[in-house]
Here is the input.
Amino acid sequence: MNRKDVKNVLILAAAAFSVIGMGIATYVFMAHVGKRYTESIVTYPKNGTEKSVFASNGKESYLCCSEGENFTLYFTDKDSFIKLPFECPENKRIIRMAVDDDGNCSMLIYSAESEMVDGALLSTLTGEATEIDVIDKNGEILSKTDVSAYLTNKNVPDSFATHDSIYYAMDCSGKAVVGSVLDGMGNVMSFDIEGTVTAVDDSKDEIVTVAIEDDRSYLESVSDSGEELWKVELPKSPCKYGICDRSNGKIYLYNKELGVYLYDEEKEKIIPLYKSPEVALGAGINNDSICILYDGDDDYELHYIEPSTDDL
Here is the structure.
């Protein structure tokens, strides 16, 4: 190989590393449940972008980044950071995302009017049209569903969750809501929960929610008919619990200040699993897999928390 060939190879290698610049650190810690957990930290360069929306199922994640008036969608896991071909039209905005158990991403998209104010892009949701688009890890569209009949600019959910990209659980105007897109969310159930609901998950015949009452947060379970099954107070925090995920008989909770908790129904006990070293940009949890996004100076830091293989 001559000098010119060597130079070209080095240039290509440097370019590839700048696109998928990855730093990994791994360590093991003991959780309060007596199990050993590993934490792997993977970093990717921001390259001038800012996080707009993040969602994860604990292993596979999607990150919507803004760069001026442009929005770019990435798929990422421990081994990859891939720019996807999906493009959101100028008159629409991805406001929420949820990753199902198979790694597909549901995007809640609202019509919007945008303008630049003091050098920053300001978007106002118009509520004229709302839809849920589902894509796979390659950015290919699997389905598009118009949900304008239910979700409007006056009914914008803060939490948005799904296990199968068919049934969705969310909080709308402080209410717990569960609906199916099989009929354009015509089959929507709303549950009366005391306080202001901040997170919801649907699990067969049971709905689990987190709600704030008088500055205290509570985890509550109700039947599909709305009957309260049980209720427990959560550790106090000025930050809301934005994720409540039920999988394999376990209920995981995430608070961006306090970290990750597990609710043991048998022992009726809230167990801390992981304490956040700083306020996070987002998180995803499912079946013992946890992914938390932190904001580095020049990088996005993805922290993966999983049971150590020593415990399996």
Q: What stands out?
A: DSSP finds one helix and 25 strands in the chain. Residues 3-19 form the longest helix (17 residues). Residues 1-21 have pLDDT under 50 and may be disordered.
